Amino acid sequence: MHLDYDPDDLDVKVSELLVATSDATDAELPGEVSEVLRLLRERLDMDVVFVSQISHGRRTFKVVESRPEFTIVQAGMSDPVEESWCQRVVEGRLPEVMVDARPFVAAGEAPDPGFEIGTHLSTPVRLADGSVYGTLCCFSGPPTKKAGAAEMDINRLRYTASLLAAKLKPTPLELQKDEQAGFKGTL
């Protein structure tokens, strides 16, 4: 049997984990996300990969995969959305691809996280209705990517974010709260 793809390819493994598992969709991330983030972190050679949720004025780290020695970001941590890089990427104030993010911090375009971020890749996780769940991000301490590699990697993140989004849908309670707060589904 001849396959026209490599079964060990990252995109194949990600789709197998996210598409071939858990048919139910809800407001929570499927359990396979940790394994997907581990694969992304290892294959993209990054220090941290995470999925954040942006809701009610906060950015919350929902699932985090990091190198053992890099424990600065942990699942459950939360901060005001206006202080996050994630919101700036969603709004287009920061690019999805920063081969070297240090100049953005030095210029005041990105908040100083208190630790070095070299390469930073981030993409929105958009639900089927167009609303933003949050972001899928990864970064390294020192810059690790060249522009061409970073572009290929952001495409992998976008693909993974679309698969994650397909597993999610807003709960009626979240929709009601967002409408009351004036968020008509998008941030």
Search tags:
single chain; 187 residues; alpha+beta; 6-stranded antiparallel β-sheet; 20% strand; globular; disordered N terminus; disordered C terminus
What does this structure look like?
With 187 residues, the protein is of the alpha+beta class. Helices cover 34% and strands 20% of the residues. It is built from six helices and six strands, in the order ααβββαβαββαα. The protein has a six-stranded antiparallel β-sheet, with helices on both faces. α1 (10-19) packs parallel to α5 and α2 (33-44) packs antiparallel against α5 (147-166). The protein starts with 9 loop residues before the first helix and ends in a 7-residue tail after the last helix. 37% of the residues are buried.
Structural class call reads alpha+beta
Question: Which bin fits the share of residues in helices?
Answer: 25-40%
Give the SSE string.
HHEEEHEHEEHH
Q: What is the rounded distance between the termini?
A: 47 Å
List the helices and strands and how they pair.
Elements: H1 10-19, H2 33-44, E1 48-55, E2 58-66, E3 78-80, H3 85-91, E4 97-98, H4 102-106, E5 120-126, E6 132-139, H5 147-166, H6 172-180
Task: Please provide a brief summary of the model.
The chain is α+β, with helices and mostly antiparallel strands and 187 residues long. Helix content is 34%, strand content 20%.
